[in-house]
Amino acid sequence: MADTPVWVLDTNVLVSGLLSPLGPPGRLIDALLSRRLTLALDDRIELEYRDVLARPRLGIEAVRREAFLAIVQFQLPVTAPPWPHRAPPDQDDVMFLEVALQTSDRVVVTGHLRHFPAGCRGPVTVLSPRCAWDTFEGFELV
Length: 142
Fold this sequence. Notes:
alpha/beta; five-stranded parallel beta sheet
C-alpha cells in the first residue's frame, strides 16, 4: 500500500461509482478493489458511507454495497484533528478535508467541487472524479 496513492473519496463518488461502474467514479472503485488506490477515512466517514450506501432510494445493489464495504477494513484509518483552516459552506464536508490533511497525498475526490471552494481547501487538493481518474492513470504509467 505504500506505493499506492492515498486519497479521500467523498460519498457522492462512491454512490456514482456503485451505480455506474463504467465512468470515472466506477473506475476509482475498481482501483480500490484491486488495491491500486488506498482510501483514507475515519470513523465519521465510514459511518456516512455505511448510512448513505444503504439508502433504499439510491437503488445500490446489496451485493455491490457489501463488497465495497468489506474492503473498508483494509484501507487507511486516520485520526484527524479539527480542520485548522476556513471551513467549507457545508460543515458536513469538513471531515473529508480533515482526513485528507493527514495523508501524504492530501487529495479529496468529489463530484461536488462547489462544496469545496478554493478559499476553504487549505493545502488539500480537491479533484473531480474525471480529473482524479486522469491523475490516477498518470500514477499508473510511472
